[in-house]
Amino acid sequence: MPVKFSGWETFCEKTKHLKPGQAPKKSHGYTMYHGTHKSNAPAIISSGFRPSAGGTLGPGVYCSRDINKAMGYPGLCGPNDRVVLKLRVRVGKVKKIDAQSMNLRTTWNQQGYDTAWLPPTMGRFEEDCVWDPKRLTVVGIAHCTDSTTKASLENLIKKQEAGTGQGQTGPQGTPCTSCGMQTLDKHAVETCWTCKTAICAFMIKHECHKV
Using an 8 Å Cβ cutoff, are 61 and 115 in contact? Predict the structure, then answer.
């Protein structure tokens, strides 16, 4: 007996912490950390990250699941001037950099990868490099010795969460009549091939009642 299928439902996994040495999985979101000078933190929260021009893993935004790694950056920064940002990172397609793939250490993005992952070794914490800064969102302040600065940054994060988001400017747009998402560009609305209901590809769920 043939089975007809219409509709869909999507599920979003919560941000995860990775265990030491555990490879990040493709397209998952994870909690990571980034150390910066407290004077740079407001701009990062408001406007997003500016990728480094180079580094151990080439150009990109550097972060780590290990807060101890982030606590060492930036170099030559006084402990009272350092802020560690807590991030939500959508890693996309990940390339593990090890002895077998060392030739891709700085060119992984040219091979179609979104993130490079350098596993931890004895005496070295794990490190990640994300090509597109839009894959990182600041969700909290993991370390800041100045309580006034910390409160100010946390308030800024709340404003960003309620506004356009980090790295985005301008109006939020209007809700799509089908999926409800805020959008500046009108979503294309199609007709369900079975129940003929107007649907949008960005809807998290469509239940077809004519199957």
Answer: no
